[in-house]
Design goal:
Layout (H helix, E strand, L loop, with lengths): L9 H17 L2 E5 H6 L1 H9 L3 E6 L2 E6 L9 H10 L8 H13 L11
Parallel strand pairs: 1-2
Antiparallel strand pairs: 2-3
Amino acid sequence: MSGTKKWMDQREIENALQAQRRIIDSVEQIRMTEAEVTNNFGAVLERLRQGAEIVVEQDHQPVAIIRPPKRSGRPISACIASAKASGSKVTLDDGFAADVEEGIRSRQQPWNPPSWD
């Protein structure tokens, strides 16, 4: 036996479940009708920016859930601040910096999805 732990004990399982419940409970869920979403779209977007989840209902039954996008990773500004705080002396070459800047610019372009017609 290598000594590597393969299974979580009961306490670890309970702690993990409690952590998941806290995350789920921390998401504000707002229930709205289709008409309310349509008539208040700007306010709906603002609530999404704040992390809320919108449940669109018809006859008190959910027909759609609108959630803010899941973000992964850290912003480049946080990475730079972390490097500076740790005293990093790394210097990036001009080609790498240009690639990063181009990547950032390309993700700032408006999204033009195909028409539904």
